Amino acid sequence: MKLLNIDYIPGKEIEALGIVKGTVVQSKNLGKDFMAGMKTLVGGEIVSYTEMLNEARQIATKRMVDDAVALGADAVINIRYGSSAVMQGSAEVVAYGTAVKILNTI
Asked: Which of these CATH numbers, 3.40.50.720, 3.30.930.10, 3.30.110.70, 1.10.4100.10, describes 2-105?
């Protein structure tokens, strides 16, 4: 499955199948959340949250790809990610794009 954040596939004619998405709400455990709070006192990267968001993006991307496979897609173009805080220590991550079928080479 090709995944691109541009709105075409170079050298290919495509047919749009529809919008596909994947979403996940991810949280860290209380112990790591407490340690992240302590880190805000001294500054610097909060590694546990970076890891949480990376894992959430991977899950959301997989769910988006699964959605595209269900439509018979060969690729997803114009991929975008969004995130928002749902509650303290958790975040929603969404991946979305346009599922396409590759028709032929131009």
From this structure: 3.30.110.70
